[in-house]
Each structure stands twice: as C-alpha cells, then as structure tokens.
Design a protein that fits this description.
By secondary structure, this protein is of the alpha/beta class. The chain has 2 domains: 3-173, NAD(P)-binding Rossmann-like Domain (Rossmann fold, 3-Layer(aba) Sandwich), CATH 3.40.50.720; 186-331, N-(1-d-carboxylethyl)-l-norvaline Dehydrogenase, domain 2. The chain contains 15 helices and 12 strands. It has helices at 12-21, 35-39, 83-91, 109-116, 156-164, 175-186, 188-195, 199-203, 206-226, 241-245, 249-255, 269-276, 286-295, 301-314, 323-331; strands spanning 3-8, 27-32, 45-49, 52-57, 60-62, 73-76, 99-102, 121-126, 131-135, 138-141, 147-150, 169-172. The strands form 2 sheets. Strands 5-2-1-6-7-8-11-12 form an 8-stranded mixed β-sheet, sandwiched between helices.
C-alpha cells in the first residue's frame, strides 16, 4: 500500500527528510516549497549522510499547497516565523482529520498550527540534525541523532514510511520536554552564526563553548523556575552540559567524543540565514528563553545579549566575533537570573 507524504516548506530539512522517506518504492513524497528550490529537483533529490550512503530519488516537487490535500501526513518544515502563514495556507486545502506534523525548531510551532488547523490532527516533532545544501538538489545530514514525534493518534503513516526507509524515528510522550532539550542545544546556533566558523571548528574552541555554556546555564535556571522538564537528547544529561562545555579543549574532546559527530563543513541554520540575508529564528531560540524569564520575573542577560547581537548581524553588523570577544560581549552586563 502506498504511503503519501507531503512536505510543506521544503528547504534543507524538508528536502532531506522527504528524499530519505522517498527511498522506498511504496512511499510517494511530494515536496512543496519555493520555486527556486523546487526547480532544482527536476532530476531528483540527492541525500547524503554523516555515516551512511548517498541516494538520489525522484520526487514530486511543486509550489502549490493544494498538493498536500491527498497526503496521509503533511510534514511542516518552514521557519518558525512562517508557521502561522503555513497554517493559513494549509487550512485552505487540507480536509478535516488530516494529519500534520511540525518538524521545526522552537517549542510553540505545533500550537500555532493547531490554532490555524482546528479540524486537523497536529503532532509535534523534533529534528535533531544539521542539514546543509551541498549542490543543486543535494542535501547532506552533517550530524547524528534520531527523529522524534509526539505519541498521538495519526502518526502511523509517518512511522510506517520511516520504518520502510530505515530512517530512525522514535515516538515520545514528553514532546515539550524534548523540544526544550533541542532548544537548549540550538542555543549554539547563534554562537555559531556569530563566529562565522564551521560547527566543529567553533565547538573545538573553549572560548565559544563558554558562551554556549553561559546561555545554557541561564536557560536551565529559567526552566527550573518554570518547573519545565528538559529531555536528555545527548549522552550527557542537560544539567551537566555547561560543565562539559567549559572543560579545557583536550578534556572536552575526550569527554564529548560521542556528542560531536559533526561533519567538518557543517554550519548552523542561523549561519545560513545570515549568509543569505534572511531573518533568523533567534526569537524562537534565545528569544524564547528571554520571554519565559520575563514571564517569571527573572532576567536572562546572556541570552538577551545574543538576541541583540544576532539582530545587529541581521541588519548588516558583525558576524565574525572571536570567542573571547563574544564571551565578553554577552557577559559584560550579566549579574544574576534572579529578579
């Protein structure tokens, strides 16, 4: 039996996930995205992996949202700021009861889609990988991890398609904790974007890791006050991540060897956005920490400083800060996360 998957907002993540799912003959994948991206897929989409083979498959590619109408499940992979508009477009074409899965950064996108699609089943999901476009129609997964979706009715078609394609996918009952766990790791997106270096090179330098550790420690304090659990998504429990990051370089590479399966050329999606002159997702990463702190009567000065630096970079400011310079910039006004 054919499984029909639509990927709405197919950029790097959407094209890679769609291409992998289409590897099995019984899964029909339709990618829906911008005309420029879809035009590159006339000869198929090529997916490569950090620890696996390269595959090229033919997929349907279109700019028309109506192509999602007959899908068994629609995966939404747009940037967070585009979620409301994606929901509005899908609301015009999806039938009642349609299954929609949010495969996006941040912690609120599934709720935004639920508000826009009250007649649909919307499931939260989490994509752990860094995916980069290497060439025309070619997408590379540059980091490790397992795809996760909410344990709720409607996920069967995606689970079946993932199993057929040998794509690791786990069902979770604690998706909000998973999303916050991913957000904690994604706090590095801003650090990487402001360093203007590949992820592996940036994380190989203690000065940059100290910036990330400060942002994570602050976020963990805010989440603890909110009594929000944070899922363990790496071999290191979330509360110990800042300690590991602050280790000297040699000790860090030994301690974090299992965490650092990263392609040497991979960069964060926020780096990609700044390089392309696009708005970033900073409001849905560091900005989410700052907003939660505000609601709790707390301060999150490190994360607020990173928001400001990324906003400045979006406006044409610097995005090549040395590690010590960046650490000084985000900690100069820090006092405490207390009110």
């Amino acid at each position: 039996m054919t499984i029909r998957i639509a990927v709405f907002g197919a950029g790097a993540i959407g094209c890679w996930v769609g291409g992998r799912l289409a590897a099995h003959a019984t899964t029909h994948v339709t990618l829906i995205g911008r005309a420029r991206v879809m035009a590159e897929l006339a000869d198929g989409v090529t997916t490569s992996e950090l620890d696996g083979p390269t595959r090229t498959v033919i997929v349907a590619a279109t700019t028309e949202p109506a192509a999602a109408a007959r899908a068994d499940v629609t995966l939404v992979t747009v940037k967070s700021a585009q979620t409301a508009e994606a929901g509005a477009q899908l609301a015009r074409v999806l039938p009642a009861g349609a299954v929609v899965v949010s495969l996006q950064n941040g912690v609120r996108n599934a709720d935004v889609l639920r508000a826009a699609l009250p007649g649909c089943r919307v499931l939260a999901g989490m994509v752990p990988w860094n995916v980069v476009r290497r060439a025309r129609g070619a997408y590379h997964r540059g980091s490790a991890g397992t795809l996760m979706i909410e344990d709720a009715p409607g996920g069967g078609p995606l689970l079946g398609a993932a199993a057929l394609a040998a794509l690791p996918l786990r069902v979770r009952r604690d998706m909000l904790a998973v999303q916050w766990g991913k957000l904690l790791l994604n706090l590095n997106n801003a650090v990487n974007a402001l360093s203007n270096q590949p992820l592996a090179a940036e994380l190989g330098q203690r000065a940059y890791r100290r910036v990330l550790a400060a942002a994570q420690r602050e976020a963990l304090a805010v989440l603890a006050r909110a009594r929000q659990p944070v899922a363990k998504l790496t071999p290191v429990p979330p509360r110990f991540l800042p300690l590991v990051l602050e280790l000297p370089d040699r000790a860090f590479h030994v301690a974090a060897a299992r965490m650092l399966a990263i392609d040497p050329h991979a960069r964060s999606s926020m780096w990609d956005d700044l390089a392309a002159g696009r708005p970033t997702e900073i409001a849905y990463l560091q900005g989410e920490v700052v907003a939660l702190a505000d609601r709790l009567g707390m301060r999150a000065p490190v994360n607020a400083a990173l928001v400001a630096l990324v906003r400045a970079a979006e406006a044409g400011g610097r995005r090549d800060l040395a590690g010590a310079e960046l650490f000084g910039a985000v900690t100069s006004g820090r006092s405490t996360t207390a009110p």
